[in-house]
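On to our target:
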Amino acid sequence: KAVVSTQSTGENDNAHLIVKRSWDISLVPLKQVPMNLFLMWMIGNTLSLFPIIMTVMMFKSPIASLFGYKTTFQKLEGSHHILQKLVYILSNFVLIGMALYKCSAMGLLPTHPSDWIAFEMPKTRMEYAVGGAVLLS
């Protein structure tokens, strides 16, 4: 009986390790959120090569992860990882949402009617901010 209890304890340990590993895998995209927030702040909202490359990379990584989620969880045995897969997929959508927000802040998304309609007047700026210079009108 001692051998059976040791074997069942080993199986419980394996099951616990598999569940722990699946949660570790599913939380990887959420661990990227603080770094992406820092990068979004660092690159600013200007349209130049570096911010555009960083924004493309912010899209590329979660989209590639979404297409390859089956191979990510394929290493783990069993089909009881539905909640972990859902968390993994939703956290990748959070990263895609952050990239869409960055594109909107940079002015790359068509969010004003003048972006779609030719005879609509473009949005006028209410104020301009210029640093280091005195403007006289």
The longest helix spans residues 2-26. Confidence is low (pLDDT under 50) at residues 1-5.
